[in-house]
Each structure stands twice: as structure tokens, then as C-alpha cells.
Amino acid sequence: xxxxxxxxxxxxxxxxxxxxxxxxxxxxxxxxxxxxxxxxxxxxxxxxxxxxxxxxxxxxxxxxxxxxxxxxxxxxxxxxxxxxxxxxxxxxxxxxxxxxxxxxxxxxxxxxxxxxxxxxxxxxxxxxxxxxxxxxxxxxxxxxxxxxxxxxxxxxxxxxxxxxxxxxxxxxxxxxxxxxxxxxxxxxxxxxxxxxxxxxxxxxxxxxxxxxxxxxxxxxxxxxxxxxxxxxxxxxxxxxxxxxxxxxxxxxxxxxxxxxxxxxxxxxxxxxxxxxxxxxxxxxxxxxxxxxxxxxxxxxxxxxxxxxxxxxxxxxxxxxxxxxxxxxxxxxxx
Length: 334
Description:
six-stranded mixed sheet
């Protein structure tokens, strides 16, 4: 059976805009039943030339847990080819700063307080994040009593509003795993099921539990929509352009690095020459100093002989000097 490839933004959006499909997918990933789901009007895409490469979809959800119901904001982010962690951080920052993301809580004293809605982030990634082959990685926070060195088994809305859990779906690891019901469902994202036409995946519907058949039907419907096929082609063209630009940028960076290495080598050689010149200068200075010291010793000898009453003519004869040179030394001149 063939379905539209949901790693394309237009198909993924079409799938998640269907309330039944969205509830089934999010419930399976979260591991708890989502009974109520509201797709907020905020949908964001990181775009270049009008074509998105990262799709964000926000859902206000009511989730049934072992301890009852809870209101959660689910931020779903899908990135097909490449990761840019700062962009993900920026999206999260926007959610935390959004004033409408809050719930009202009634205290025991009857007061009503506004608290930030807890956030759960789900990443569906077309690239590997971990070296470990984990198709679905859930990152959960814990309360920890540092003084007593133990885990605390309580939760408070104020704290929950300031931290968040995250689930990472690494689609490249899906081909090797289909043991759980969730992993079987996530095979709708398995790119190894791609046909010659990368817009289409070939799957075995019998491998999917009956309750997920609505998702399969939704993806089959997507294939019949001409505007969706056209959008997937535009996304292909955009991504090819991005890859080409990245290759050009990588080549330019390589050339820059080569020039940087050449400059570094030239600087190193210049520094070596400078050090060599400095060493020669020091040698010359030391030689001059030594000559000056010898001259001063010689002059002292001449002066000493004069003090002993030896005539200038005898001194000149002894040191093979002219009378003028002896006279200059005796005057104390250099």
C-alpha cells in the first residue's frame, strides 16, 4: 500500500490537522491518552524563499495520567534534513514568553492563580542526534532533594511551569526497530519505505494496529491532492538549492581555511626571521660590549703605567700606539 511521505511539511501538516490522526499520533508518542486536542492558530516555519524547512505546530492538550487530567502545551517540531539547535531554543523561548500560555489553578484557600502551562516538546527528526540507536528517546526531569540525596515524588505547578520534558523521534533508527506498537506506528516516517518517487512510501497496512488505520487513510488521501504533490516538488527544489548553497559555502570555507593556513605559515616564518634577527642583534650588542670592556681595560693599563712614572713615549712604544693615541687616553678620553 502506498501513502504520501509525511516527512514533507505539506503532508505532515495535512496529517496533523486531522483531529483523529493527531490524537492517535500524540497519544502514542506521549504514552498517555490525549482526550482533548486543540490546534492553536500558531504554526511556524523556518522559511527561505517561502518554502519551510522546519515545521512547528502547537497543540493545547488534555492528557489523562495515572493521577488524573492535566493541561499541557505540546510543541511539535519536525526537521527533515539538518539540525540547528539555536533555532529550536529560540522556538522554546517564544513559548515560555507567550502570555496566553497559562492555566488557572484554584488553591485550597479558594484563590485562583494563573500558572504557565507545562510544555512538552516532541521532535521528529530526519537526522540522528545520538550515537546510540534509539528510535524514540524520552527525556524526563526529576525533583531531587540535594540535602538528603534522594529523589522526591511530588510535583508543583510553579516548578512544572518552569521546566519541560522532551521526546526525540530519530527516524533514521526506525528501520531496525518495530517491536512496540509505537515503533510500528512510527514506520509511517520510515524513509527506507520510500519508492522510486520519494514523495511516496510503500507500507504493509497489516503491520499497523487497527486503531491506527485512520492515519493510513489520511496519508492515502494526501496522495490524491494535486496541490500537495506540487508543494512536495517545491520543497524538493528548495532543499536541493539549500544543499547546493551549503556545498558552495563549504567550498568557500575550505578556501578561506587554506588562505588562513597560508597566512599563519607566513606569520610563523616572519616571526622566526624576526627572532633570528633579534638573536643576531643581541650577538652584535654583546660583541660591542666586549670590545668596550677590552678598551676600558686597555685604557686602565695605559693610565696605570703613566701613574707609575713611565713616559708617554715608552707607553706608546710598549703598546704600539701613536703619541696622539696615548695623549688622548691620558686625557681620559675614549
